[in-house]
Structure formats: C-alpha cells, structure tokens
Amino acid sequence: MFGVEPICKVLTSHGLKIATSTCYAAKNRTPSARSVRDAELKTQISRVNADNFGVYGVRKVWRQMHREGIPVACCTVARLIRDLGLEGARRGKKIRTTIRDDGRERACDLLGRDFTASRPNERWVADFTYAATPADRGQGRPWRPGTPPPAPMDPDLPAGSGSGCPSPAAGVASFMRLPMFSRTSP
Predict the structure, then answer these.
(1) Do 127 and 173 have their domain in common?
(2) Are 58 and 79 in contact (CB under 8 A)?
(3) R_g over Cα of the chain
(4) Full pLDDT tens readout for the chain, 186 residues
(5) What is the rounded CA–CA span in Å between residue 12 and residue 8?
(6) In this structure, are 48 and 77 located in the same domain?
(7) 57 occurs within a structural domain
(8) DSSP-derived 3-state class of residue 82
(9) CA distances (Å), 106 to each of 56, 101, 137, in order?
(10) pTM value?
(11) Exposure of 163 in the CB half-sphere (CA atoms within 13 A)
(12) C-alpha to C-alpha distance for 182 and 77, rounded to whole angstroms
C-alpha cells in the first residue's frame, strides 16, 4: 500500500534517520543460517509430533530427534514447538477450583462497592472461591462457598448460619467470621 520512501520520510521527520537503502537491503538479504536451520527443524518437529499422535512434548520430541541422529538443543526444540503452536499431552485431571452455580443467590454487597475506610479496622473484606476440605483428599463431600458448610465454621454459630444475607445493621464483622484469618497484636 505504501512505499518505503514515504515511511522513511515520516520516521526521519520524527528523529529516526533511516535510509531507504537500509530497508531494501534488509528485504533482499539472504536468510540467515539460523532461519534456514529453523525451517528444516520445524518440518522434522512437525513430523515427529504427527508420528506420535501429537502427544509428545518438548523433552520427548528432543529425545526422539536425537535417536534419529538429528543434533539439536532442547531449548531450540522448545522455541520451535512454541512457534509451531504444538503442545504435548498432559497427564492427570485438570483441577477446576471454581464451579459457578447460576441458580444460587449471590452474596449481598454490604459495602456497596465502597472500600474506603476513614480509620484502621473499619472495614474488613474477605473473598475466597475455594476452600480445601477433607473431600479433596477423598475423605468426605466437597464444600463450596454459597452452600451450607458441613460443620460450623465458628463454634459459636450453628451449622449453616452464614448462608443467608444479614441486615446491614448487623455489621460486617458479624458476617465475616472466618477462622482461617487471624489478627495478632504486635
């Protein structure tokens, strides 16, 4: 759309002096040895990946290429696999910590999104989306915020008492009784 000369004029007017011959020289320059080798290696990496059903990652592709007699560094294989957009298979199950339930009522916004405080300890806010329970180790049922907890979180409260929204007059401190957050005096 635009030629090299107008672009160089604009750059020169902004203090970057670039000659048009520099642009033409870069365009007509022969490819570097690295880019030529990268093109050859990309075809080999794609072949090894396809031969192994696309499950090989960097380390296995690198080892397979060495078995085939293709000398290449592991970091080079990693860079080229990234450039190709390939990815090996990962073992295990993907852990998903937040499962949103649109059917449940959201927690009330007691502060009205105003988090400013005129003095220390005026407003305490906590937010968590995942709490590890014995169920995570296969010892019971999982608990998610927004559902009644399986046991009282605070010994002074009955089970499930924190599931409803208190009135703003009750105060934030009575609503946020979380035993995992403790404050010690200096």
Answers:
(1) yes
(2) no
(3) 30
(4) 577 888 888 888 888 888 888 878 888 899 999 999 999 999 999 999 999 999 999 999 999 999 999 999 999 999 999 999 998 888 877 777 667 778 888 778 878 888 888 888 888 877 665 566 555 555 555 555 566 655 544 455 444 444 444 444 444 444 444 444 444 544
(5) 6
(6) yes
(7) yes
(8) helix
(9) 43, 9, 28
(10) 0.45
(11) 15
(12) 48
Q: What is the DSSP letter of 139?
A: S
| Structural contact between residues 87 and 66, judged by C-beta atoms closer than 8 angstroms | no
Are 53 and 112 found together in one domain?
A: no
Which amino acid makes up residue 101? D
Residue 114: which domain range? 98-179
35 domain residue, yes or no: no
Encoded amino acid at 178, one letter = L
**Does residue 178 contact residue 153 with C-beta atoms inside 8 Å?**
yes
Give the tokens for residue 153. 């979180």
Residue 166 C-alpha from the chain's centroid? 35
